[in-house]
Predict the 3D structure of the following.
Amino acid sequence: MKFFLRYNKSDKNNCSPDHRCAWYCSFNLLRDRKNSFIKYNTMLIQWYPGHMHKASKEIKQTLHQIDIVIEVLDARIPFSSQNPMLSKLRGDKPCIKVLSKSDLADPDITQQWQTYLEQEQGVKTIAITIEQPEKIRHLTDLCHKMLPDKSGTDRLINTLIVGIPNVGKSTLINILAGRMIAKTGNEPAITKMQQRIAIGNGIVLMDTPGVLWPNVENKNSGYRLATTGAIKDTAIDHEQIADFAADYLLIHYPELLKMRYQLSELPSNSSALLDAIGKSRGCLRSGGHVDRDRVSKILLAELRAGTIGRLSFETPAMMEVEMAELIIIQAEKAAKKEARKSKNKRAS
């Protein structure tokens, strides 16, 4: 996806008090919490099993046979859960972006994302949950609408379905096929190999393993992936991820935190929030100290299950600000690298 900054500070005049997505609010959030984002950026999340590397190569080899791409995204993190390699690979092929787990996401922000994503030519979106099998089956109708030349003919529509681990791709396939084909589970990296699946209505799905990418350049996106469960828990530091999540929830969903954890008033920071939750849940070690690992796992589990409430962890405006900052960081890195090269040449 291509991001362009289309906002300026004057937009703050159009920002209603409850409009969390306003550019000005996002700008101030990043500016005022600069130190916390620097802290989070210090941990690089890396989890790229061998089968994912193989799957990426197979996707490249398969795309020339594909008529339409179905990319399954996590509705809570539509930007962070999309594969940046895929946009380059698919070229001008039509694409349906499925916002899965929309029952866990903030509905207002999900609508913002659908409007935003559909600005890209050839892209349509649909927000779904596994509780809406009939809506999921509308995907086949959408495929035909986006490919009118093949609709009503004997030619099959070849679709490639892709998505990051644990985004609900296998469940989606089983509903479309009307039978248990893809193995499902509430953990990432269940599918290990490509499958070719006829789902009826003249459509064939090419399923692929959930694919992450070797380098998540925007480190905040790495934390969001870990927060929502796209990265295996064995590959993350629960306390750091929970600290990131708690910090975000304090800013964006304070009332949901109060209700869920029966807090009369909110702590001032993420560390104090985790301590308060730990004490209320009895996560204590000897001496009355809070068991941070245990309370971190509780917060992440309840967040992922939706028991805290419907949460979204990024907005289009927020991601535009972060991507603009990333461009600056990349330019600075490139300049430093070039300076080192010049210095080495002069020294030799």
